[in-house]
Structure formats: structure tokens, C-alpha cells
Amino acid sequence: MPLALLALAIGAFGIGTTEFVIMGVLPQVAGDFGVSIPTAGWLVSGYALGVVIGAPLLTVLGTNISRKKMLMYLMGLFIVGNALTALAPTFGIMLIGRVIASLAHGAFFGIGSVVAADLVAPHKKASAISLMFMGLTVANIVGVPGGTYIGQALGWRTTFAVVAALGVIGLLGVAKLVPAMGRPETESIRTEFAVFRNVQVWLAMAMTVLGYGGVFAAITYITPMMTEVAGYKEAAVTWLLVLFGIGMFLGNAISGRLADRALMPMLFTSLGALALTLLLFTVTAHNKILAAITLTLIGALGFATVPPLQKWVLDQASAAPTLASAANIGAFNLGNALAAWLGGIVIAAGLGYTSPNWVGALLSGTALLLSFLAAHLNRRTRASARLVAASGSTAHTPADAMH
């Protein structure tokens, strides 16, 4: 695989760390600024909202810029956002810093997916995309626990200063290793938006919102679920999240290779198994060992959906893939926010800390049904195309016979 994929993975590692490490230092931030934990939670939801908005906005603004330069600009924005977060004198300024950093998130992964796919042969595109996303999964194994430890030992400002430094390394890596690939091959912004006339692009984004959202319905409330239901001490949640990250890493790596061979079967399998595992979690959450195993499986199956979904979007929006790819990254974060909200509703309704798992299973199961629909429509489109091609060749047969 090209070394350029390493540069993209480093950028993804930094972005993944800054997205999730805030959860580990949230009490410290709240205490320093004298705000409540729910108020400090805006640093999480504000980031997610920034991703949803920034993904299509910055991708559109970068239509006339080469993809390499755009990736460098995005890493620069990421560095500025995290530096501002580290130096913020007030909570409001820190929130602004978080949003600035988040604006780069969706566009980086969206454009990076297109660049990664273009660096390799057609039969290796999903594997290349998974290698870039490997940086995000490693962030959950190393970056988030490490950043949390640094924050507890040296203060949360040091954590975000280190993340900004990671951004500098990512920027230098993109500058040195990613080849100049020219401007996106689209005529105008209108051409980019035209891909949204394709129902398959919307189906893919809906699958992303619901499928990966199913994971976040459970993982958002993992601390009370593991402490109140499974019986773990709060300090154990850190290594449980490491297990979840290891699952993400393995699911991403395996899925990338399998999706290159059989994309839709891989998607069917991962979504179906994810829905069943989330249902199972309502039972296994009552046992420490089984809860840990199930949590690892949820990480693996949840992230196993990422390479095939991202590849499916690129295939369906092949005429102008950049905006659709970035919008699909925004869909992941929209799914996170939707699932966290729905999970909170069922807990508030008194259904218990395992009830978000039912919500997650329903969301992932719905995504599975949508994947069947997408596959059916794709088969019908291909059959129609073959029929048109066959009728076209038949129409020439009589004339050919006269000669």
C-alpha cells in the first residue's frame, strides 16, 4: 500500500483522538470553567454538529482546489482549532475552538476517502479506505486513553496541545507523502450536488445514520451500563473502552478486505450481526466477562460497516464523489447524535440502562432492511441496462444480415 495512506492515517488518528478524548477530561474542563457536566457536554455535541455542517460546506468550498492542498488546509484548520481549545481563557472560547477543529473532520475523511481510493487499483479501494480509517480506530485504543491519562496527570490543556502537535505531524505527512492529484474531476459545484439526485446515495447515508447510530445508542451510556448493571468500578471503564477500540480496529481491517471481494454481502453480514449483538447486550450486560466480550464485538461489527458504506457511496456517486463522501462522514455524526438522544429518552422513561441497546438494535436492523432495498434497486438498474444494451444490439441485427 502507498505511504500516502500512512499520512492520511496519522491525520485520522489526530482527528479521532480529539473527537473522543473530551469525554475522558470532561469533568476537569467543567471544574476549571465552573460549569455543570451537562453544560460541558456541549463540547461533545458542538463538535458533532460542526462535523455535520463542515463536511459538505468545506468540501463545496474546496471544489476548485486540488485534493492534496485541501487536505493540508483542513489539517491547518484542525491545528488552529485544537490550539485554541488548549489556550481558551473561557468556556465559550473553548467551544469555538472545538467547533473550528470539527469543521475539518468530515471534509478530511470525505476527501481522504476519495484520495485513498484513487491511490490503489479498483479491486483494493475498500482496503485503502479502511487503512485510512485505521488511524481513527487506533485513536480509540491508544490516543483516547493516552490523552485521558495526560489530562489527568498534566491537565486537559496539555492533552489538546499534544493533539495539535499530532495535527502538525499529519500536515507534514500529507505535504510530503500525498501525491499532487489535481483538482476534483467535476465541472462545477452544481455537478457535485447533482449526485444527490441518485436515490442510492441517500440510501447509503440513511444506512450510515442508522447502522453506526446503533453503536452509539449503546456506547454513549456505556459508563452507567457497565457500573450500574455489569458491576464494574468506574476506573474499569477506561480499559473497557480500549476493548471497544480494539474491536473497532479489527472490524475495520477485516471488513476492508472482505468488502473488496463482496461489498453488499459484507454489509448485510455486519449490519445483521450488529443488530443481533446489540439485542444480546441487554442480557450479557449483567455479567462482567460477557459484557466485555459483547462490547468488543459491538466495536468490531459497528466499524465493519464503515469501509463498505463509504465504498458504496463512492461507487454510486462516481461522477462527483467528493461531496457525497464527505456528506456520508457527516451522516456518521448525525447518527451518533440521533442515537444518543433516543437512548437518553428510553433511560429517562425508566426503562433502565440497558434499554439503549434495544434502540441500537432497532436502528441497525432498519439499516439492514435499507441495505436489502439498495441491493434490489442496484440489481434492477443493472438488469435494465443489460436489457437496453441487448435491445440496441438486436436492433442492428436485421441491417447487418442484409449485408
Automatic annotation (TrEMBL):
Localization (cell): Cell membrane
Keyword terms of this UniProt record: Cell membrane, Membrane, Transmembrane, Transmembrane helix
Main location group: membrane
Domain Major facilitator superfamily (MFS) profile: 4-382
InterPro entries: MFS (IPR011701), MFS_dom (IPR020846), MFS_Efflux_Transporters (IPR050189), MFS_trans_sf (IPR036259)
Membrane topology term: Multi-pass membrane protein
Transmembrane segments: 42-61, 73-96, 102-121, 128-150, 156-178, 199-223, 235-255, 262-283, 289-309, 330-352, 358-377
The name this protein goes by in its record: MFS transporter
Organism annotation: Streptomyces gibsoniae
